[in-house]
Amino acid sequence: MKIKKLFVIVGSVLLVAISGVLLVGCSKPSYDAFTLNGWEYIALNNLGKSADEVDITKLKVSDFINLSGLMDDTYLYKGGIKFKNNSGWYPTLIDNFDETYNENSGLNPKIWATSRHDIRWASQKKSHPEYSNYWCSEMVSVKDGKAVVRAAYDGNHTCPVCTANGYTKGRFTGGFETRAEVKNDNGGYDSNILWGQAFGYYETSIKFPDKDGMWSAFWLQGNEMRETGFDGIDGTEIDVYESAFRKDNKKVSRMGHALLWNGYGNSGKVSGHIGKLEQNLYDGNFHTFSLLWTPDCYIFFIDGYATWATNAGGVCKVPEFLRFTNEIDAGDGWGPHGQRIGQFTHDSEAAMEVEYIRVYQNVKYESSIAPSKDGKPYSKDNNFESHFDSPYDKAN
Ligand SMILES: [Ca+2]
Ligand SMILES: [Zn+2]
Question: Nearest 10 degrees: CA dihedral of 323, 328, 329, 334?
Answer without folding.
Answer: 50
